[in-house]
């Protein structure tokens, strides 16, 4: 087998696509694989827009993203101050796109919209210092007695109680 150290050639138009959809199914999107990159976004803006401690995105060149169904259902919101544009399904509210003012050629899509592979692992973290105090930090989980399917972080509660017995 011949080995080469030459840099990989830029990919020709990808043959593989990944499909994603919002919760209600009104909007379907498609990307050419692989996505350009993927990361976990812990910023306060993303926490609020997506209603979670952090969101995982894939970033794609806009030219490699298509709305295959429901374009008319997509609502856009320009975030005051940053001029970022966040789009979502006007029917079910699912966040769809996150476009940053400094990188208009790229479009960021919540990873969770895709059931299958997108060709990138999320190896990066942005704004991790904005992680909220209530986020799960991979503490050990144990089953909650009497509530099948519910796990909890018994250890964390105990530690907090010792550190601040009068805290809330
Ligand atoms: Zn929807």
Which key phrases capture this entry?
168 residues; mainly beta; Metal Binding Protein, Guanine Nucleotide Exchange Factor, Chain A; three-stranded antiparallel beta sheet; 2 helices; 12 strands
List strands and helices in order, with pairings.
Elements: E1 17-21, E2 28-32, E3 37-41, H1 44-50, E4 55-61, E5 65-69, E6 74-78, E7 85-89, E8 95-99, E9 106-110, E10 124-126, E11 142-143, E12 151-152, H2 154-163
Parallel strand pairs: 3-10
Antiparallel strand pairs: 1-2, 2-5, 3-4, 4-9, 6-7, 7-8, 11-12
The protein binds zinc ion.
Overall mean pLDDT score?
89
Order of helices and strands: EEEHEEEEEEEEEH
Identify every distinct bound molecule in the structure, by name, code or SMILES. zinc ion
Query: What is the tally of beta strands?
Result: 12
CATH architecture of the largest domain: Beta Complex
Tell me the distance between the termini.
Answer: 65 Å
CATH topology of the largest domain: Metal Binding Protein, Guanine Nucleotide Exchange Factor, Chain A
Which percent range fits the helix content? Answer: 10-25%
pLDDT under 50 segments (min length 5)? Answer: none
What radius of gyration results from the CA coordinates? 20 Å
Number of domains: 2
Q: What shape does the CA trace take? A: globular
């Amino acid at each position: 087998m011949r080995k080469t150290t030459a840099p990989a050639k830029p990919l020709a138009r990808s043959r593989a696509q990944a499909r994603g959809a919002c919760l209600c199914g009104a909007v379907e999107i498609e990307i050419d694989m692989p996505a350009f990159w993927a990361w976990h976004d812990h910023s306060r803006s993303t926490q609020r827009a997506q209603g979670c401690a952090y969101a995982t995105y894939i970033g794609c060149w806009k030219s490699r993203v298509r709305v295959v169904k429901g374009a008319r259902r997509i609502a856009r919101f320009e975030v005051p101050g940053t001029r970022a544009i966040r789009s979502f399904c006007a029917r079910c509210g699912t966040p769809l796109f996150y476009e940053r003012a400094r990188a208009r050629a790229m479009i960021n899509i919540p990873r969770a919209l895709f059931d299958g592979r997108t060709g990138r692992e999320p190896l990066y973290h942005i704004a991790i210092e904005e992680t909220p105090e209530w986020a799960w930090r991979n503490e050990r989980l144990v089953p909650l007695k009497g509530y099948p399917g519910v796990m909890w972080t018994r250890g964390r509660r105990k530690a907090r109680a010792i550190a601040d017995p009068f805290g809330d």
